[in-house]
């Protein structure tokens, strides 16, 4: 009798990585169920009139050699068009991407480009370094007296850190001081999450900012002045990165093509309704297509990247009452991107150039709803149909039951254009076109009573022997795509090993040294 396939729920970075790792290892049957017609999850690329939108911005950078090599196996790195090397710094070294190592050409379609990173904070009509670091730029923008206040506040926090560190507010104050926290972190973070920093778990900071602080930033700045080099162990200090020529979705569309070429079954537009189990094993999954047709899929194992809330609600029989209540109470933040096409940005910020050099601009100004602005021209020039235009993505953070999410597309376009004018970043008279994208459940919430009990839910789900949770929503963890891939790799290895090692999945993205330690062991 032919064994039932492994079923993977979701064709994002985690789902596709798990599927390919199983097939590459000779696993006989793998089926991926993707609820939408798109590939890549939130790492997809959306095309609009020849322009491309990257939802949230995805730098292809990892401290894991395995991830970097995996990406390069799918899409080779293009040889720089200029002479000389453009190194990519990671794991404390400048390595990997000299022109002598690049095997493809930028003129090829299926390639990754080497891109320079620049992100800044926009506050009071001025640009500040991001990550925020001490230096003359900060003094010029804020004044010496204010900077001395920041320094005193930081030293006070360093001398008497908040212990135990429970909330995100505690986390920021311990690393930046109360004054810098109030000036540059509090309002923006609360705009992103929709709740006060004191109500958000410090776990979010541990996973997203890790051990970066104003002290480490000062050390990095001084080292660069003295030696010309920086330590790149902190993701936020990356100075260059890889990027698919036509956006992040190109990576996952190419990976999906390989998955199918190797015999994997990829079903688009099939949303999971029910997950049937017998005691502590999942036996089959019921999904429906856009026309409402339902189909049952037998499974020897299930890799789930779907939101845990929906996963628990789909289980038949249902989880016990406490676990189901926790899952049903988990919260998410949703994401709106308004794409705006301009002839140019305001000369007040771009000078004689058509646009600024930033990948992202973090908007700290009060009185506006936009949280961040992407300049797609700087991610890849091939994201923009006409190089004589500027293609921007304004990012708004919402919840699916709030007023912002309920706004019509026309109202969101008007809001975005008005705020760009208000900020002085672009003039409405230069606008050429606009579009709106909505991404539900973009961010798993690190707040609320249910999240405080998440470990109870995790323990219950871990009791299902052949269910493997990975990816951002699959683990309700704010993972980058490389973390999602590493969790998927471990899920695939556990399936190949008959379930052994499944607990290692939860070790991904819990401390700074995880990736390096994982590389040493494998």
From TrEMBL:
InterPro entries: Amino_oxidase (IPR002937), FAD/NAD-bd_sf (IPR036188). Gene3D superfamilies: FAD/NAD(P)-binding domain (3.50.50.60). Residues 14-496 form the Amine oxidase domain. This is Protoporphyrinogen oxidase. It comes from Roseateles saccharophilus (Pseudomonas saccharophila).
């Amino acid at each position: 009798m032919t064994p039932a396939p492994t079923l993977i729920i979701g064709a994002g970075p985690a789902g596709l990585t798990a599927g390919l790792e199983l097939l590459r290892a000779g696993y006989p049957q793998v089926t991926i169920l993707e609820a939408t017609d798109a590939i890549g999850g939130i790492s997809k690329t959306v095309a609009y009139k020849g322009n491309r939108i990257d939802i949230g911005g995805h730098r292809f950078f990892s401290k894991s050699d395995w991830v970097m090599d995996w990406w390069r196996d799918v899409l080779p790195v293009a040889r720089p068009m200029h002479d000389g090397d453009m190194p990519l710094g990671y794991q404390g070294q400048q390595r990997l991407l000299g022109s002598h190592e690049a095997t493809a050409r930028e003129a090829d379609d299926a390639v990754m480009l080497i891109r320079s990173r620049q992100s800044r904070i926009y506050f009071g009509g001025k640009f500040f370094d991001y990550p925020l670091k001490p230096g003359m730029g900060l003094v010029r923008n804020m004044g010496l007296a204010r900077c001395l206040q920041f320094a005193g506040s930081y030293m006070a926090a360093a001398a008497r850190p908040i212990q135990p560190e429970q909330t995100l507010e505690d986390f920021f104050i311990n690393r930046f001081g109360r004054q810098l926290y109030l000036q540059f972190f509090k309002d923006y973070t609360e705009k992103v999450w929709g709740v006060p920093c004191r109500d958000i778990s410090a776990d979010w900071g541990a996973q997203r900012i890790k051990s970066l602080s104003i002290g480490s930033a000062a050390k990095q700045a001084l080292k660069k002045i003295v030696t010309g080099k920086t330590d790149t162990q902190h993701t936020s200090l990356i100075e260059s990165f890889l990027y698919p020529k036509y956006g992040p979705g190109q990576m996952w569309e190419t990976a999906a093509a390989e998955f199918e070429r190797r015999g994997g079954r990829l079903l688009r537009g099939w949303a999971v309704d029910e997950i049937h189990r017998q005691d502590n094993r999942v036996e089959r999954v019921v999904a429906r297509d856009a026309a409402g047709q339902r189909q049952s899929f037998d499974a020897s194992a299930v890799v789930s990247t779907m939101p845990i809330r929906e996963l628990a609600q789909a289980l038949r029989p249902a989880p016990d009452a406490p676990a189901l209540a926790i899952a049903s109470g988990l919260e998410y933040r949703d994401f709106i991107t308004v794409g705006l096409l301009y002839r140019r940005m305001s000369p007040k910020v771009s000078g004689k150039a058509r646009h600024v050099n930033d990948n992202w601009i973090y908007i700290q100004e009060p009185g506006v709803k936009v949280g961040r602005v992407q300049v797609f021209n700087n991610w890849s020039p091939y994201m923009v149909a006409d190089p004589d235009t500027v293609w921007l993505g304004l990012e708004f953070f919402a919840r699916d039951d709030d007023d912002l999410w309920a706004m019509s597309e026309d109202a969101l376009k008007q809001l975005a254009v008005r705020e760009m004018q208000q900020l002085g970043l672009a003039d409405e008279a230069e606008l050429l076109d606009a579009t709106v994208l909505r991404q539900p459940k973009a961010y798993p919430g690190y707040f609320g009573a249910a999240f405080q009990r998440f470990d109870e839910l995790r323990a219950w789900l871990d009791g299902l022997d052949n269910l493997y949770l990975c990816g951002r929503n699959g683990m309700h963890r704010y993972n980058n795509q490389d973390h999602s891939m590493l969790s998927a790799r471990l899920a695939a290895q556990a399936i190949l090993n008959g379930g052994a090692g499944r607990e290692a999945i939860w070790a991904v993205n819990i401390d700074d040294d995880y990736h390096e330690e994982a590389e040493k062991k494998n």
